[in-house]
Amino acid sequence: MVLGIQTLQTGVLGGIVVGLVTAWLHNRYNKIELPQFLGFFGGSRFIPIVSSFAAIFIGIALFLIWPTIQLGITQLGGLVDRTGYIGTLLYGFVLRMLGPLGLHHIFYLPFWQTGVGGTMEVAGKVYEGDPATEKFFSGTSRFMSGRFITMMFGLLGAALAIYHTAKPERKKVVGGLMLSAALTSFLTGITEPLEFSFLFVAPILYVIHAVFDGLAFMLSHIFEITIGQTFSGGLIDFILFGILQGNAKTNWIIVPIIGVVWFFLYYFTFRILIVKLNLKTSGREDETNTPSSAKGAERSIAILNGLGGADNINELDCCATRLRVSVKDIEKVQKDALTATGAKGVVLVGNGVQVIYGPQVTVIKNEIEEIMETE
């Protein structure tokens, strides 16, 4: 009920629908020209107007179909709950496998913020996705806590294995890269720089990594670890939502215990497979296409050229670790040239390009925008 009016609680999924429709309307009408007496409302100013009218029809459509969707969400949550530990394992595995495509955000949000992640009845009222309880709601943290084991411990073992299996003459360079990527994963939970160092050259390692991550989620569920997060599974969130909340509420002390085992599990698994299968991980690849040492404007110019030039770019944006670009002609994108600029990976989806650089991607995006403005 809102102001005494019965309303539909679509939550985050409703926001996703409105966001997608608004984005579509923007792409379609952002250059619209209205009659002269309405000219002020043309272009981008037209988007809020048309979006408001579109929202009316979205509301009508949701009134008709949302009850069915809500029932499906509830049943999915019940299915995950009934499958118990196996359901948690599958969640962690799928979450990790969607990471390279950048679709993991769409997957985990319903588990975090809707009834899919479980519900709790307090004083006769049902709550979902609400952490404001004495012990962080185990239904929600069930889909969060496993990350800390993988990001703070497991991937550090993988980084050490990649360093130890590198060619002697490349160990100094690889050591610097792996140390930086491992610290980023440990402190902040940003794993792309490390994961993309082996995803494309050794996909089997990534699949195994996804399985281990799923197992980490399952173990967290088994041992009732209930650590929440604001961003990811790094040390910062571990301290805020684990240690500072007290072991009685979160069981955080179990994380480093499992984590030590996970470190060695990753280390020996990665090292054995890299050597036995002769996988071309960092420091073992052929000497052609070695990353360029160019920095600043020089690197950004090379990236822009690798994307097909300024004229080939429709939209340029970034997230925490990835440069996200919409291009006019995907054939003009040069993956090798982008990799040579120090990219950890390049993903092409339709006319979209994702170039993974790590936490410094915001600086790179700003540099490219400055270059494009001067051309």
| Sequence stretches where pLDDT stays below 50 over 5 or more residues | 130-137
Categorize the overall geometry. flat
Tally of extended strands? Answer: 6
Helix-strand topology string: HHHHEEHHHHHHHHHEEHEEH
Annotation field: number of helices: 15
How much of the sequence lies in strands comes to: 5-15%
Helix content: 55-70%
The biggest beta sheet is recorded as:
4 strands, antiparallel
- Mean pLDDT over the residues: 83
Order of strands across the main sheet: 3-4-6-5
Structural class: alpha+beta
Radius of gyration: 23 Å
How far apart, in Å, are the first and last alpha carbons? 54 Å
- Any idea how many domains? 3
Pfam family, one: PTS_EIIC
Keywords: Cell membrane, Kinase, Membrane, Phosphotransferase system, Sugar transport, Transferase, Transmembrane, Transmembrane helix, Transport
InterPro entries: Glu_permease_IIB, PTrfase_EIIB_Cys, PTS_EIIC, PTS_EIIC_1, PTS_Glucose_EIICBA, PTS_IIB_1
Subcellular location: Cell membrane
